[in-house]
Amino acid sequence: MTMTANDSSFPRIISDSRLIAGPEPEVQLHLINKHLADIERFSAERTLVMMHGATFSSASLFDVAVAGASFMDVLAQAGYDVWAVDARGYGGSSRPPAMSRAPEDGSPLVTARTAVEDFSAAVDFICRHRDVVSVNVLGMSWGATIAGMFASGASAKVAKLVLVTPLWLSDRPLRIDAGGPLGAYRIVSPRAFEAAWRGAAPEHARRELIPDGWFEAWEKVTLATDPGSPHDGAIRAPSGAVQDVRVHWTAGDPLYDPDDITCPALVLAAEWDADVRFDMAHDLFARLASAPYKRLVEVGQGTHMILMERNRRQAFDAVIGFLDERAHPAS
Question: Could you tell me the pTM of the whole model?
Answer without folding.
Answer: 0.95
